[in-house]
Design brief:
Elements (H helix, E strand, L loop, with lengths): L1 E4 L5 H18 L8 H9 L5 E10 L2 E11 L6 E8 L8 H15 L4 E9 L9 H9 L2 E12 L5 H14 L3 E6 L8 H9 L1 H4 L14 H13 L3 E9 L5 E9 L6 E9 L8 H16 L5 E7 L3 H10 L2 E12 L1
Helix pairs in contact: 5-9, 6-8
């Protein structure tokens, strides 16, 4: 086995890396859509703003059999690194994952990081079986399960549209004094500063268990850079916000996105409401309005996935009212290095 850094201009290495990702997704989360190749390649060339990404690949007989991706925050959380290790299903339990984790720790330590964070998927009570190998690997490495998230899926083929219409009408009755706005990828300039402020509140408002991870220092420039990164990946984003009528301030917004080559699936991303404006069902309102807009534009859309920490009761209640149902459990592991 040979472990070496990825050369993003090496087409064979990139193709092997993509195939590895496709195979591991199919084995570990078989209900996921296949990884979008366009977005995968773009991610190699356009890391998320404020991050440095280092990729190392494990090769056996000229085949990519594993990878470690080390994400190194450059603005916030400069003592942390996020590590993603994956091994081809037919090459597991041969020490490849341990070797890749060791290389990732070396990279993180050389950059002055004192802890790493990683993620594994597991079986939820009553949910589909998930291979426990990831959890076992993390425990053997000495990592702590610091935050648990549950993935929920919305299957639009099982939802009665009249139920969503009734929920939205009820939310509108509670949201007197607010108006909805929509944007596709780029928040209007007059709402940019408020969108950045709300985005930066996410980790303050959403529970993250015992993870040592600070909220992002978000400003207008960084928010625009995040939007550019989304567009560079070829994603189709849909956004809805709530504006307070008397002040004209954006006080809530939500985002979902669709991968460039996947017509039937979307990722439900951030939903955030200014704490001063809670109690008006704005989170439910913007989510329903944004979903309705996406459905009108994307005729094949049937499935959406979202994640919540298991103690984020407010957002879980909103998601389950819309029709999201639990699928599997995701552990966020923390390891001092």
């Amino acid at each position: 086995m040979d472990i070496r850094p990825l050369d993003v201009d090496d087409q064979a290495a990139v193709e092997g890396y993509y195939e590895l990702t496709r195979l591991t997704w199919a084995a570990d989360v078989p209900d996921f859509p296949p990884p979008c190749r366009e977005g995968f390649v773009a991610d190699l060339h356009h890391p998320w703003p404020g991050d440095e990404h280092v990729h190392v690949l494990a090769w056996v007989d000229n085949r990519v059999v594993g990878r470690a991706k080390v994400e190194l925050p450059q603005v916030d959380n400069r003592e942390n690194a996020r590590v993603l290790v994956a091994v081809r299903p037919d090459y597991r339990r041969r020490g490849i994952g341990s070797a890749l984790l060791g290389r990732a720790v070396e990279i993180a330590s050389a950059r002055g990081r004192v802890r790493i964070v990683a993620e594994t998927v597991g079986t939820l009570d009553g949910g589909p079986h998930r291979d426990p190998a990831g959890r076992e690997f993390a425990l053997v490495a000495g990592a702590k399960d610091a935050a648990v998230e549950v993935r929920r899926r919305l299957d639009l083929t099982t939802v009665d549209p009249t139920e969503h219409a009734a929920l939205q009408a009820e939310a509108l009755r509670h949201a007197a004094g607010y108006r909805l706005i929509f944007w596709h990828g780029w928040v209007p300039e007059e709402h940019l500063a408020r969108a950045a402020y709300l985005d930066g509140r996410l980790l303050e408002d959403a529970p993250i268990g015992e993870l040592d991870w600070a909220p992002a220092s978000m400003d207008a420039g960084r928010f625009r850079s995040m939007e550019r990164a989304v567009m560079a990946r070829g994603r189709r984003p849909y956004n809805a916000g709530a504006v307070h009528g008397s002040t004209g301030r954006l006080v809530a917004f939500t985002a979902l996105s669709m991968d460039a080559t996947i017509p039937d699936h979307a990722w439900q991303n951030i939903t955030i409401v200014d704490p001063e404006h809670r109690g008006h069902r704005l989170g439910l309102l913007v989510k329903l309005a944004n979903l309705a807009r996406a459905r009108r534009a994307e005729s094949a859309l049937t499935l959406l996935d979202t994640w919540n920490t298991d103690d984020n009761h407010r957002m879980i209640a909103i998601n389950e009212a819309i029709g999201y149902r639990p699928v599997d459990q995701w552990s966020n592991w923390q390891l001092a290095i």
